[in-house]
Amino acid sequence: MSECVIHTAPEPVFAEPWHAQVFAVTIALNEAGRFGWSDWANRFSNTLKRHGFARELDGGDDYFHAWLETLEDMLAEQGAALPQDVTDLHRAWEEAYLTTPHGHPVHLR
Fold first, then answer.
1. Cβ atoms of residues 96 and 107 within 8 Å
2. Residue 108 structural domain
3. pLDDT tens digits for 41-65?
4. Do residue 92 and residue 72 come from a single domain?
5. Same domain, yes or no, for 55 and 90?
6. Residue 34: C-alpha distances to residues 26, 37, 96 (Å)
7. Residues 65, 89 within the same domain
8. What is the Cβ-side half-sphere exposure of residue 70, based on CA atoms within 13 angstroms?
9. Is residue 7 part of a domain?
10. What is the pLDDT of residues 72-109, one digit of tens each?
């Protein structure tokens, strides 16, 4: 008798594409020597505590918003991504997204 094996696709590691992107950017900056991983982990832990995220997080938006906040804070301290520059870029992307017809690629002007 032959056995039927059903293979299912694995669950995605990240719930949203931007979660994967901010994670990948953080890893790349660490590997490039922009910061040490233990420093990153301590800062991220402090961000989670500051926001009251003491509960078990499942990698959702609240977790990755805290992740992004930590990364932006570290880069601001280094002078690599000043808060006003980040805000301006965020607004530019938001405007580009909102004014791009559905189904078309989003481009900054």
1. yes
2. 85-109
3. 999 999 988 887 655 666 678 889 9
4. no
5. no
6. 9, 10, 30
7. no
8. 26
9. no
10. 999 999 999 888 898 898 899 899 989 999 998 988 87
Q: What is the pTM of this model?
A: 0.73
- Report residue 49 as tokens: 């505590």
Give me the helices (H) in 1-109, please: 17-31, 37-50, 61-77, 83-99
Cα–Cα distance between 28 and 13 in angstroms, integer? 18
Supply 68's token pair: 């992004």
- 14 near 59, Cβ under 8 Å? yes
Note whether 47 and 72 are within 8 A (CB). no
Measured between alpha carbons, how far is 11 from 33 in angstroms, rounded to an integer?
31
Same domain? 38 vs 74: yes
Q: Which two tokens stand for residue 6?
A: 């059903």
